Amino acid sequence: MKKLLTALVIAWMLGACTGANTTPEDEIREYIDRGIAAAENRDSAELAEMVDAQYQDKNGMDKKQLRSMLHFYFLRHKNIYLFRKIDEIVLLSKQAAHVSLYVAMAGSAISDASMLANLRARVYRFELELVKPDGEWLLKSARWQAASPGDLQ
Fold first, then answer.
1. Which of 6, 7, 149, 150 could form a disulfide with 69 if both were Cys (CB 3.0 to 4.6 A apart)?
2. β-sheet bridge partners, residue 83
3. Can you give the three-state secondary structure of the chain, one letter per residue?
4. Segments in the chain below pLDDT 50
5. pTM score, whole prediction
6. Contact at 8 Å (CB) between 139 and 130?
7. What's the structural domain count of the chain?
8. What CATH number is given to the structural domain containing 121?
9. 35: containing domain
């Protein structure tokens, strides 16, 4: 289960937009939204591109292992729907950030947090470390723990 969650973290970490009027917080929100979309589309290749080459999580998983796990998870799950709530974005520098967010995962569409109980969705709190070495945000590491549907309210 922990490896599955690590794989889904990648889902939240796609594409950083670097427009002239875009703040770093905006870039990170766009990055997370693109990751959600990629995960729901079961696109492990796109997700893997958004992970830092030096990715390492608390379980010792590296980028290659993470990509393999994503591929396996997507083969096993026909439908993936995610619902997120960003709790906090902390810019540590121009090239590093910490993000705390809650994510609900279900096999049916989640239009709002009130649906979570009916869908038997699993909810997790993620702590993400992002880096921006070459103009794009990348996932450097991730931690997670179970949370409750009330955390998404």
1. 7
2. 104
3. CHHHHHHHHHHCCCCCCCCCCCCHHHHHHHHHHHHHHHHHCCCHHHHHHCECCCCECCCCCEHHHHHHHHHHHHHHCCCCEEEEEEEEEEEEECCEEEEEEEEEEECCCCCCHHHHHHHCCEEEEEEEEEECCCCCCEEEEEEEEECCHHHHC
4. 3-4, 7, 12, 14-19
5. 0.83
6. yes
7. 1
8. 3.10.450.50
9. 2-152
